[in-house]
Automatic annotation (TrEMBL):
GO BP annotations, alphabetical order: mitochondrial electron transport, cytochrome c to oxygen
Family: Belongs to the cytochrome c oxidase subunit 6A family.
Record's keyword annotation contains Cell wall biogenesis/degradation: no
Protein name: Cytochrome c oxidase polypeptide VIa
Domain of life: Eukaryota
Alphabetized UniProt keyword annotations: Membrane, Mitochondrion, Mitochondrion inner membrane, Transit peptide, Transmembrane, Transmembrane helix
One cellular component (GO) term of this entry: mitochondrial inner membrane
The keyword Phosphoprotein appears for this protein: no
Location(s), subcellular: Mitochondrion inner membrane
Organism lineage: Eukaryota, Metazoa, Ecdysozoa, Arthropoda, Crustacea
Organism, scientific name: Tigriopus californicus
Metabolic or biological pathway: Energy metabolism; oxidative phosphorylation
Alphabetized GO MF terms: enzyme regulator activity
Length: 113
């Protein structure tokens, strides 16, 4: 009985101290008002939107370093081993085959590039 009243007293005083701390920091009768959302709107428009635009430019703007040159084909005996044909197409190409990037067992398809 004494433990429950002590616990309720502790929680009640903690609750009151948290509530009065918030009131003391803002002052009595203080509200957020119109200035809070206006400030965050300005921050969003002046910082957030340009950051998103610069991120997209950085991600999608082509540069000379982004051009990938594929390595020369070397027919290693332990790569591109086909024990069984794929069940689609002619059986030599994977499901997500890219002729410029993925080599077949005997070399690239478009050897001219």
């Amino acid at each position: 009985m004494a433990f429950t009243s002590l616990r309720s007293l502790a929680w009640g005083s903690l609750h009151r101290s948290l509530n009065t701390t918030a009131v003391r920091q803002r002052g009595p009768g203080a509200t957020h008002g119109d200035e809070g959302w206006k400030r965050w709107r300005k921050i969003t428009l002046l910082v957030g939107v340009p950051a998103i635009i610069l991120g997209h430019v950085n991600a999608f703007w082509p540069s000379e370093e982004d051009k990938v040159h594929r390595p020369e084909f070397v027919a290693y005996e332990y790569l591109r081993i086909r024990k069984k044909a794929f069940p689609w197409g002619d059986g030599t190409k994977s499901l997500i085959h890219n002729p410029h990037t993925n080599a077949l067992p005997d070399g690239y398809e478009d050897a001219g590039h």
